[in-house]
Design a protein that fits this description.
The protein is an alpha/beta fold. The chain has 2 domains: 2-110, Alpha-Beta Plaits (2-Layer Sandwich); 151-264, Rossmann fold (3-Layer(aba) Sandwich), CATH 3.40.50. It has 8 helices and 8 strands; from the N terminus they run βαβββαααβααβαβαβ. The protein has helices at 18-21, 70-78, 82-94, 98-110, 183-186, 190-194, 210-223, 241-253; strands at residues 2-8, 28-31, 34-37, 58-64, 175-180, 198-203, 228-234, 259-264. The strands form 3 sheets. The protein has a 4-stranded parallel sheet. Strands 1-4 form a two-stranded antiparallel ribbon. The protein has a two-stranded antiparallel sheet with strand order 2-3. Helix 8 (241-253) links the parallel strand 7 (228-234) and strand 8 (259-264). The protein is elongated. The protein starts with a strand and ends in a 7-residue tail after the last strand.
């Protein structure tokens, strides 16, 4: 069958094993100094391991692969203790994998085991915006909402990773915001809290070419006098890849620019 599954770039992989720790399903092992996908049936394709890889060596692709086997995964994880089992079930819940979660809970009952998480069969699972739908009540519109409108703090163009020039006057002596492109839509005060007297670059660490980002950012760091860098990304696992992109670019540039990080929840809150 054709489905989403991880792919490891062995040229980038250093064999640190961080991804193995981030995979409670047990799909990964370090063999001969490299991380390996040892069992396709144990990889759910949700990419929790991506955020744990310091070398940006893991991506999600779609290809022919053995079907994911939730029952076998649950049996293997249960042997590792309640903490690992709970991490796996929470992982499914956070990513909106309702069917797999219910299959796992049902199989635990068959094994005579209690679930380490509380989950009603009829409960709506909170989903990861990268792979599923989520909706909530925004609240009623207030009469004073019009007064709360703010003017744009953006003082440059372009802003997209692929379009910004390597050298530009709007980078010099400015704080640089490098934001995942979902952030300004999720966080309502983005202009006020981040763009005042700052330059901006936006992009998607999951869907765009990360190697190109690293190379271009390294040149931007080299050719401009940037005061500081703030990485602003969403809380979903794939978005943390932006951190590795920026850190690799900083290393390649040879610069030591003060670096900060801000995480935004899918509900539009700073974490």
């Amino acid at each position: 069958m054709k489905r989403e599954i991880i792919k490891i770039d062995l040229d980038k992989c250093t064999g640190c094993g961080d991804c193995v720790k981030g995979c409670p399903e047990g799909a990964l092992q370090v063999i001969d100094g490299k991380a390996r996908l040892i069992n396709e049936a144990f990889c759910d394709g949700l990419g929790a391991c991506i955020g744990d890889c310091p070398e940006d060596a893991i991506e999600i692709i779609e290809r022919e692969a053995e079907p994911y086997d939730e029952k076998t995964v649950v049996e293997n994880i249960a042997e590792q203790g309640e903490g690992v089992l709970k991490a796996h079930l929470e992982h499914l819940k956070e990513h909106g994998q309702t069917d797999l979660l219910e299959e796992a809970l049902e199989h635990l009952k068959e094994l005579g085991m209690e679930s380490p998480i509380e989950m009603k069969r009829s409960e709506q699972v909170h989903t990861c915006p990268g792979s599923a739908v989520s909706q909530w009540n925004k609240g009623e519109k207030r009469e004073d909402d019009e007064e709360a409108r703010v003017s744009s703090r953006l003082d440059q163009w372009p802003v997209q990773f692929n379009l910004v020039p390597v050298q530009a006057p709007f980078f010099d002596d400015k704080d640089l915001i490098i934001a995942a492109d979902c952030v300004p839509f999720a966080y309502p005060n983005f202009h006020v809290d981040f763009l005042e007297d700052s330059s901006l670059i936006i992009g998607c660490p999951k869907l765009d070419d990360s190697e190109y980002y690293v190379e271009k950012l390294a040149e931007i760091f080299k050719q401009n006098s940037i005061k500081s860098v703030n990485i602003v990304h969403m809380e979903v696992p794939c978005c943390f890849g932006l951190n590795q992109i920026v850190k690799r670019a900083m290393d390649e540039s040879g610069k030591h620019i003060p670096l900060d990080e801000t995480t935004i929840s899918v509900r539009g809150e700073k974490k």
